[in-house]
């Protein structure tokens, strides 16, 4: 999760946390970071010109992730947060190797929280095709507890449903149950929401699954991991700082930004438009 | 639809028809072309590394379309077919201006067929957000008949449903009716399937709407327009030719290629992998 290359000088401390995602879903991580670390500034970059990453090949997602991380370094990011399960699942080791500041993904924090939550040892994971096919959650969960039993399921329709703003509709409930029902039948007691979009469906999923299944939200746990990292690496912004948020996208925002803004009650201010420059990658 | 720049020499006649789409949906146009023009060779390029185009801005779709068209010209395409409603809706005039061979989109052929089909003069159009927001179908329909009444609706969930392979499920029926029901209530007698993916849902849509509403399939009508163009420009391949099909994608194919292959009964052979080279655009 960290490569420990940061220096922790006073200049670095005031630099922003760089956060990226394929699109706007990573704002769930930003929302958690803003609540937990109000005095930190955040520069968020969503690669909306090439989203989604979730159905694409590992090599393409790796190339895109390195290009976007390079753009965050141009913004003086003191640390890079991969607020995208797909990029965390397939590109984290390349990012850690290439990026000269500490890098945090969402997979290991989510796996840790799932291990802490499960009583039965049977954990479910839902995510995009690329995340599930990578087996990254299984590996992370088994590295923490070799006895754990994992059932994973790709749910490619959930992101488009969320982006359509259909958060509380009977059709959405039906699709959730088509995907998650088989996991429930297998006896999971913990479900990892392995995509940064999914916290926007948290209420619907919780209502459908009832109290016996604990939902683990990668956004929340990733934010805690970033806080721990900043303390460990002596990179926390001064207490007196007022954190700011700058959101940049590679394609102008569509209606989903409104959905996310309302659901997260996040003040994203004016959105910057950036074009990816393919030759600047690390 | 055509810029009439082709020469029609005998060398050109054996060159392939270049077809592109944001992904694999444009294979519905290829399938129609193969049936109508079996002696023509086709080079198909799907920009799967950056799909979908349907939710992205006009300027980004224009840039992508020019890059992909340049790659088709490198393959000696004698004509370029924009087998993507979104690219046809927002980038056709730029393509016609920049590409030195005739260019055919899907919008005008679809509009012509809708005008021919409607009795009531009330036409519905469904498509991606970018296609519907562009107003391209309204403009094309009204240029052919200024009295026509058009109701258009963006259906962003249909493409993901098709790509998931859920072509014949109760949930798919419900989502279709949420989108199309209001158009039916307005009294349309003709519905334009304004996205190259949608012919894969034709059976379900026809079953739900019944016999009184005519479905206009942009794939079929685009193929007829290409045939007319080749005859007009003296670009038809010799009768004795056996047409071939080469499919190239910018990201390795996922499970949707199997869905399309089966639904279209199309022999796509071995898929070539091509990387977009952003600096070669026209």
- Quickly give the structural class of chain A: alpha/beta
Strand line-up across the major sheet of chain A: 4-3-1-2-9-10
Total domain units of chain A: 2
What pair of chains forms the biggest interface?
A-B, 25 and 25 residues
Mean pLDDT of chain A: 92
| Main sheet characteristics of chain A | 6 strands, parallel
What's the helix count of chain A?
12
Are there runs of chain A of 5+ residues with pLDDT below 50, and where?
none
CATH architecture of the largest domain in chain A: 3-Layer(aba) Sandwich
Relative strand content of chain A: 15-25%
Report the order of strands and helices of chain A.
Answer: HEHEHEHEHEHHEHHEHEHEHE
Assembly type: homodimer
User: What is the CATH C-level name of the largest domain in chain A?
Assistant: Alpha Beta
Characteristics:
homodimer; 282 residues; alpha/beta; Rossmann fold; six-stranded parallel beta sheet; 12 helices; globular
Report a brief summary of the structure.
Two copies of one chain form a homodimer. By secondary structure, chain A is an alpha/beta fold.
Can you tell me about this structure?
Two copies of one chain form a homodimer. By secondary structure, chain A is an alpha/beta fold. The first copy, chain A, folds into two domains: 10-105 and 221-280, 3-Layer(aba) Sandwich (Rossmann fold), CATH 3.40.50; 107-218, 3-Layer(aba) Sandwich (Rossmann fold), CATH 3.40.50.1860. The first copy, chain A, contains twelve helices and ten strands. Chain A has helices at residues 10-14, 27-36, 58-74, 85-98, 107-117, 129-134, 136-144, 158-163, 170-185, 202-209, 218-232, 255-264, and strands at 17-21, 42-46, 79-82, 103-104, 122-127, 149-154, 190-194, 214-217, 245-249, 272-273. In chain A, strands 4-3-1-2-9-10 form a six-stranded parallel sheet, sandwiched between helices. A four-stranded parallel sheet of chain A has the order 6-5-7-8, sandwiched between helices. In chain A, strand 7, helix 10 (202-209) and strand 8 form a beta-alpha-beta unit. The two termini of chain A are 19 Å apart. The model of chain A has no long low-confidence stretch (mean pLDDT 92). The A-B interface holds A 48-50, 55-57, 60, 129, 156-157, 159-161, 163-164, 166, 171, 174-175, 178, 251-252, 254-255, 278 and B 48-50, 55-57, 60, 129, 156-157, 159-161, 163-164, 166, 171, 174-175, 178, 251-252, 254-255, 278.
């Amino acid at each position: 999760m960290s490569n420990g290359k940061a220096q922790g000088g006073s200049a670095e401390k005031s630099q922003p946390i760089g956060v990226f995602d394929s699109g706007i879903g990573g704002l769930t991580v930003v929302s958690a970071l803003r609540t937990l670390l109000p005095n930190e500034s955040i520069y968020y970059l969503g690669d909306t010109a090439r989203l989604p990453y979730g159905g694409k090949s590992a090599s393409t997602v790796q190339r895109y992730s390195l290009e976007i991380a390079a753009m965050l370094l141009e913004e003086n990011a003191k640390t890079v947060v991969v607020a995208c399960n797909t990029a965390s699942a397939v590109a984290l080791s390349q990012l850690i190797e290439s990026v000269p500041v500490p890098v945090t993904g969402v997979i290991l924090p989510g796996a840790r929280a799932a291990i802490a939550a499960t009583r039965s040892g049977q954990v479910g994971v839902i995510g995009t095709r690329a995340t599930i096919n990578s087996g990254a959650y299984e590996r992370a969960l088994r590295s923490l507890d070799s006895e754990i039993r994992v059932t994973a399921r790709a749910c490619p329709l959930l992101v488009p449903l969320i982006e359509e703003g259909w958060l509380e509709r009977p059709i959405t409930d039906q699709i959730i149950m088509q995907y998650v029902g088989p996991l429930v039948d297998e006896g999971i007691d913990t479900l990892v929401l392995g995509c940064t979009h999914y916290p926007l469906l948290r209420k619907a999923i919780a209502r459908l699954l009832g109290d016996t299944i604990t939902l683990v939200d990668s956004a929340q746990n990733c934010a805690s991991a970033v806080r721990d990292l900043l303390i460990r690496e002596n990179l926390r912004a001064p207490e007196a700082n007022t954190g700011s948020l700058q959101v940049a996208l590679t394609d102008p925002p569509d209606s989903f930004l409104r959905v996310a803004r309302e659901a997260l009650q996040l003040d994203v201010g004016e959105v910057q438009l950036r074009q990816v420059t393919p030759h600047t990658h690390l």
